[in-house]
Design a protein that fits this description.
Shape of chain A: globular
Number of strands of chain B: 0
Distance between the termini of chain A: 38 Å
CATH topology of the largest domain in chain B: Rna Polymerase Sigma Factor, Chain: A
CATH class of the largest domain in chain B: Mainly Alpha
Number of strands of chain A: 13
Radius of gyration of chain A: 22 Å
Distance between the termini of chain B: 36 Å
Structural class of chain A: alpha+beta
Largest interface: A-B, 44 and 56 residues
Order of helices and strands of chain B: HHHHHHHHH
Helix content of chain B: over 70%
Order of helices and strands of chain A: HHHHEEEHEEEEEEEEEEH
Shape of chain B: globular
CATH architecture of the largest domain in chain B: Orthogonal Bundle
Oligomer: heterodimer
Helix content of chain A: 10-25%
Chain lengths: ~250, ~190
Amino acid sequence: MDEVMFGHDLLERASASVQFPATPQLRTRVLAKIAAPPVREMERWRARALPALATATIVLAAASGVTLAVPSSRSAVADFFGIEGSKIEILPTPAGGLTPTPFPTPSEIDPNAVASSLEKAALAAGFEPALPRDEDPERVYTVQYGNSTALILRYDNFDLWEIRTDGSFDGTFGKGGGPGSTIRDLNVNGLPARWVAGGPHFVRYIDAQGNIDESTERIVGRDTLIWRTEFALYRMETTLLLADAVGVAEALP
Amino acid sequence: MDIAGREEAVAIEAAAGGDAAAFGRLVERYQEAAFRAAYLIVRDAGEAEDVVQEAFVRAYRQLHTFRLGEPFRPWLLRIVQNQALNTVRSRNRRRGLFGRVAFFAPRSGEGPHAEVAAAGEAEQVLAAIAELSPDDRAILHLRYFLELPEREIAAAIGRPPGTVKSRLHRAGERLRNVIERKYPHLRERGDG
């Protein structure tokens, strides 16, 4: 190991003088983390418990230009596709002579959302939210969906929704496209994602038994990127272009 | 195998069988080396801490792939270095992205070059090493800053022990190129 090479002495001096921060004590934290069931086990459990989701993916054809049905007909979902935890509903075009209900004014946020601080929201949700560029959001909200708490992180150009999918969350988020809506199938870090764009669409929460929680229904006026990771389901409602929205999504820690 | 080595082998075998407490002893034994390995790459104490915690969790879950009788430290450090490199890549992607999108206020203060210029020799050497490939970085860190013996360096980089010296030499040459281009004031101190 004493071979003379460029930089040997320089590297020896650097090694002797480099200042390392104090080493943190990690035993307790590491053991707490490995005590949790591995995610893959949870995913297998989910796959057994929610077979409907496993069979729910239907290839979307001619997704653009679908007509929004009247609210009362929203349960008559004709078709849907999606990713686990979020499905996109393609509603039947009303029969001739029927006029769809006009789109309500888009609302910014789930009517059940409660303003919070980042710390309190993380405690309520039971997980540390992924922060774009590790920047604190301008505002933080929590929303309860079934037994799970979702976080909404508001930034200048987007709202980022995060909900853990390796715990008790067992519902789905349904989205319906309105006139001019387009739904694009893409990937975020190699995992399936959807980009809903081109016009307002509605979103709502559906519980594990398939019951629609009408109190969560709202119209989203911005484009939306939906994706999931091994641990979480994300939704970004944004004014960013698709490429930039995907960039934000892929850069999340 | 000395007593410490036998104790370590027992702890690894127990941990691989699901004994978390045994793995806790390995964490205590190697957390300093792991933290320093991570810090050399990410250069941020908080990030290094996160990297090491995640690396230990991954190591625990991959223990079934560890070959008993092999040294544990280089196997662990390889996981740590990979995790740290992923963190740096993710950070760089974010910087690139947000530089383009610019919907966050730019960070205050001067850029990294100004910071490096004001740093001491050790910091500048580390900055020069950071411009090398992951393989070159790894071998220089392992040899000089973590002071692993040749056998463990070989295990960590997944190469035969007989190739370590030549790989170090080539890494040194590539370090020379970086120093000549970007840190010429270090050049005269780098020979030998």
